[in-house]
Amino acid sequence: MNLHQFNYPKPFELENGKTLEKLTITYHTAGKLNEQKDNVIWVCHALTANSDVFDWWKGLFGEDDLFNPKDHFIICANVIGSHYGTTNPLSINPKTNTPYFSDFPTVTIKDMANAHQLLAESLGINQIKILIGGSLGGQQALEFTLLNQTKIENLVLLATNAVHSPWGIAFNETQRLAIEADESFYANKENRGQNGLIAARTIAMLSYRTYEIYEEKQKDLNNVYESFKASSYQKYQGQKLANRFNAYSYWLLTKTMDSQNIARNRACLEETLNSIKAKTKVIAISSDILFPAKEQKFIADHIPNASYHEINSSYGHDGFLVELDALKEILKDLA
């Protein structure tokens, strides 16, 4: 994929009334936009992913995969607040000439969608063949569709919701408390709050996976009384994220996820979903405890032209990244 940057030439107003004086959006593309500009696949990434969809959704996106650059123009934009090049807490605040750190303003899912819309307009894209996203990415895809400024032909929503649940918010708040318990987080310096971030990620893993998959993958032999596989796995996953992400972005983006409510400043949830005209596939993971299948059923029940699909998996929420064969079967008619 090819890396690009878009610099918005005006202050960017956020949903809460605050502004980002400078907005830079980093994004990846693959393939070519055809003459009719109707071969666009727009991918919305999840919480800590980046805009290189070939990197983290291999098997679904790639040179020889279901969605490939020979047939499609594939684009994925890094979200506001994330670690990978779009304006985020480590960016320079023009008002202070220092990084924002914890002073970065609150960003909502709708803000992310509005930024996507600006990027689409800059590229001359006014129609999207497939708009796809899972988890936080699915939240973005819903809001992007509801802006009604770009024609969406096919909408694919995986393991996501129309309004974030108290359960999901509680998980995120617990992670933020772990980050805030690391006193270095308040130093407002790069690479601070990392121990808190490690702890936060280990909490998140318990919402991403399941009892069954830990039992299958992390079970010890009977003669073990310390240095458990599950303990090592948690530490590994925490450190793995800390090596590539920063605590300020993670703290901010969990708040962004909590902001999801497509009915805010609109009609009720049902009426808002009912306004979506795109042909929609809603995909759930049977064992997902973070975004339970009932949340996807609710979406599918209220979008007029929607179909509901449930993948039987023991991987929990992460199943939308893991169960590639099942996903390909559901999505093959779109390729």
Major beta sheet summary: 8 strands, mixed
* Rg, nearest Å: 20 Å
Beta-strand residue fraction? 15-25%
CATH-scheme architecture of the largest domain? 3-Layer(aba) Sandwich
Shape annotation: globular
Mean pLDDT: 97
* Order of the strands making up the biggest sheet: 1-4-6-5-9-10-11-12
The number of helices is 12
| Secondary-structure element order, N to C | EEEEEHEEEHEHEHHHHHHEHEHH
Give the terminus-to-terminus CA distance: 18 Å
User: Approximately how much helix is present in the residues?
Assistant: 25-40%
Tally of strands: 12
User: What name does the CATH topology of the largest domain carry?
Assistant: Rossmann fold
CATH superfamily of the largest domain: Alpha/Beta hydrolase fold, catalytic domain
Low-confidence stretches: none
Would you write up a description of this structure?
This protein is α/β, with parallel strands linked by helices. It folds into two domains: 2-164 and 259-334, Alpha/Beta hydrolase fold, catalytic domain (Rossmann fold), CATH 3.40.50; 167-257, Rna Polymerase Sigma Factor, Chain: A, CATH 1.10.1740.110. Helix content is 36%, strand content 19%. An eight-stranded mixed beta sheet has the order 1-4-6-5-9-10-11-12, sandwiched between helices. Strands 2-3 form a two-stranded antiparallel ribbon. A hairpin with a 5-residue loop joins β2 (12-13) and β3. α4 (166-181) packs antiparallel against α8 (247-258). The longest helix is centred in the middle third of the chain and has 16 residues, at 166-181. It is globular, with a radius of gyration of 20 Å. The two termini are 18 Å apart. The model has no long low-confidence stretch (mean pLDDT 97).
